[in-house]
């Protein structure tokens, strides 16, 4: 999977469901709130490594890569 063409589909919805600010999510992921904002706005894609971090934080993340949708899920 190419490192920079993964588009998160449900990041904002997951964040809002937990009532977290972009700053809170950014701290949990080790990135800036500006980075979170750009990802949620669709102006920035993420690496596979960051997608895995998101899956660890939320339990799963839905991403799109080359027109296909994938669910990355944390094993319990």
Q: How would you describe this structure to a colleague?
A:
The chain is an alpha+beta fold. The chain has a single domain (7-73), classed as 434 Repressor (Amino-terminal Domain). It is 45% helix and 18% strand. The chain has a three-stranded antiparallel sheet. Strand 2 (60-65) and strand 3 (68-73) form a beta hairpin. It is globular and about 30 Å long. Keywords: DNA-binding. It comes from Calderihabitans maritimus. This is HTH cro/C1-type domain-containing protein. InterPro entries: Cro/C1-type_HTH, Lambda_DNA-bd_dom_sf.
Briefly summarize what is shown.
The protein has helices at residues 11-17, 22-29, 33-40, 48-58, and strands at residues 7-8, 60-65, 68-73. It has 76 residues and is α+β, with helices and mostly antiparallel strands. The longest helix has 11 residues, at 48-58.
Keywords:
alpha+beta, 434 Repressor (Amino-terminal Domain), 3 strands, 18% strand, globular, DNA-binding, Lambda_DNA-bd_dom_sf, DNA binding, HTH cro/C1-type domain-containing protein
Largest sheet: 3 strands, antiparallel
Fourth-level CATH superfamily: lambda repressor-like DNA-binding domains
Please give the number of β-strands. 3
Query: What is the spatial order of strands in the main beta sheet?
Result: 1-2-3
Strand content: 15-25%
Structural class: alpha+beta
Which geometry do the CA atoms define? globular
Question: Helical proportion?
Answer: 40-55%
CATH class: Mainly Alpha
CATH fold-type name: 434 Repressor (Amino-terminal Domain)
Count of runs of 4 or more consecutive helical residues:
4
Number of domains: 1
Order of helices and strands: EHHHHEE
Under the CATH scheme, the architecture is Orthogonal Bundle
Mean pLDDT: 88
């Amino acid at each position: 999977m190419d490192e920079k063409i993964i588009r998160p589909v449900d990041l904002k919805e997951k964040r809002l469901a937990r009532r977290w600010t972009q700053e809170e999510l950014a701290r949990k992921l080790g990135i800036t709130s500006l980075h979170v904002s750009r990802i949620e706005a669709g102006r920035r894609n993420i690496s596979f490594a960051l997608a895995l971090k998101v899956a660890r934080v939320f339990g799963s993340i839905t991403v799109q890569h080359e027109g296909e949708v994938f669910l990355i899920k944390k094993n319990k």
